[in-house]
Amino acid sequence: MDVVTIGETMTVFTSNEEGPLRQARSFSMKFGGAESNVAIGLSRLGHRSR
User: Does 36 reside within a domain?
Assistant: First the structure.
């Protein structure tokens, strides 16, 4: 391993529409959490991360 991160992975839901959140009909789901984002970014750059 090149890098090991310790933290929690979260899910971020983002509205696909403009306007009040309570009126949104669809959402996008992405990964959140600084540690997870760093591990994903390093992996895309060719490093072995966990």
Answer: yes
Residue 39 included in any domain: yes
Q: Domain range for residue 29?
A: 10-44
What total of structural domains would you count in the chain?
A: 1
> pLDDT, tens digit, for every residue of 7-40?
999 999 999 999 998 999 999 999 889 999 999 9
Quote the pTM value: 0.63
Could you identify the residue written with the tokens 């490093």? Answer: 47
Nearest residue to 14 via CA among 32, 31, 27, 1: 27
Using CA atoms, how far residue 48 sits from 10, 35, 37, in Å, is 21, 14, 14
Distance from C-alpha of 15 to C-alpha of 3, rounded to nearest angstrom: 33
